[in-house]
Amino acid sequence: MNSKVIRLILAGIAMYAVFVFMVIAFYPDKPENMDWKDREEYNRVQITKLKLGSTREEVLALLGTPDITEAKQQGVTVIQVMFFRTQHVRADGLTTQDECTPLLFENDKLIAWGDGAYSSYQNS
Fold first, then answer.
1. What is the pTM of this model?
2. Contact 87, 74 (CB under 8 A)
3. Measuring CA to CA, how many Å separate 110 from each of 33, 53, 97?
4. CA–CA distance from 104 to each of 59, 82, 91, 107, 112 (Å)?
5. CA 109: distance to chain centroid?
6. Residue 2 half-sphere exposure, CB side, CA atoms within 13 Å?
7. pLDDT(49) > 90
8. Among candidates 55, 34, 81, 108, which has minimal Cα distance to 45?
9. What was the pLDDT predicted at 28?
């Protein structure tokens, strides 16, 4: 009787391990599929991994679609700012710039991020 119980327990553990593996392997955790709390935490973690000079495509692959964007052209230089939600300020159902971390791109290369960088961009 004890050996049957042990076999059932081991079979259950094995089935659980296979289920967990399948979920991890075949259900990628994309930023677009997360709720807003998980997305904020995900964005904060991913932003710490950024490197200056990363391309816009690399950042989009890492962080997904930005919550807010803006851009301007100064001569031949294109400046783009992407805002990714990283903190909760108000429970109004809207994502605003004060709830986001700005990432600045010059000609599709990451040149700066953070509120100070965005303030410099606005003053230029």
1. 0.73
2. no
3. 25, 5, 19
4. 11, 7, 27, 10, 5
5. 18
6. 0
7. yes
8. 34
9. 61
Helix (H) or strand (E) holding 70: strand 68-74
- Span 10-34, pLDDT tens digits: 999 999 988 888 877 776 667 777 8
Helix axes 36-47, 56-63, angle to 10 degrees: 140
On the question of pLDDT at 115 being above 70, the answer is yes
Q: For the residues of 9-56, what is the DSSP string, one character each? A: HHHHHHHHHHHHHHHHHHS---GGGS-HHHHHHHHHHHHTT--TT-BH
User: φ, ψ for residue 29 (rounded to 5)?
Assistant: -85, 90
- Report d(CA 85, CA 57) in Å as an integer: 18
Is 43 within 8 Å of 10 (Cβ atoms)?
no
